[in-house]
Amino acid sequence: LIASLPDPAAYAGVRLEPADFEKDDDSNFHIDFITAASNLRASNYGIALADRFRTKQIAGKIIPAIATTTSLVTGLVCLELYKLVGSVSADGQTQRKLEDYKNGFANLALPFFAFSEPIPPAKTKFKDTEFTEWDSFDYDHDVTLQELVDDFEKKYELELTMISSDVSMLYATFYPKKKAEARLQMKASEALKSVTGKDAPAHVKWMLMDVCCEDKDGEDVDVPSIRVKIRD
């Protein structure tokens, strides 16, 4: 198959021109191509295949959908974005209340439009402080896991029993002693690389970690996630 491919040099200077989609012109083979390509993808994911006529029906409804519901939803999202961007003060604090924002519900077939106030995120109490899923403990440098363990013990009288990042477990008290001691001496980014075998993606500046904690009585304590700055 590879040997049958033409020499790339033969296509030097070739320019591709976009073609306007036209489902009703059988001579352009647009529907034939879409049918073949979509059925190949459907086969990979166990999705029911569609014949040429069904593909033509589906493709024919794309433009009306983009021009109606999609444009409506986009407009509603932009309205909320204006509120968010326009309400931030010079010090980075928002000047709007939660009830100023709106969830939108629409069904153009009825037609039906409704708006409601967003539900605030669930709050969890940690000592005398309440936090949500949007809160975190932030460290402005690439700390070692030992620094995290010591910091939580000193500041909050909590023992870190497990540290993880996404699906990667970086440290746990049930690790063999030698492995646990070696992992604690690593910086957060080094521990992640040790587990996954690769560095964090180049665009990632902050590493997110979740921890399991116990108090002095051995009771589990919920705490916010941890964010560690691994790059400037």
- The rough form would be described as extended
How many extended strands? Answer: 10
Q: What's the gyration radius in Å?
A: 27 Å
Mean pLDDT across every amino acid position:
90
Distance between the terminal alpha carbons, to the nearest Å? Answer: 47 Å
User: How much of the residues is beta strand, in percent?
Assistant: 15-25%
**Helix-strand pattern:** HHHEEEEEHEEHHEEE
Oligomeric state as shown: single chain
Portion in helices: 25-40%
Helix count, per DSSP? 6
Low-confidence stretches: none
Characterize the largest beta sheet: strand count, sense, and whether it forms a barrel: 6 strands, mixed
Structural class: alpha+beta
Short description:
The protein has 232 residues and is of the alpha+beta class.
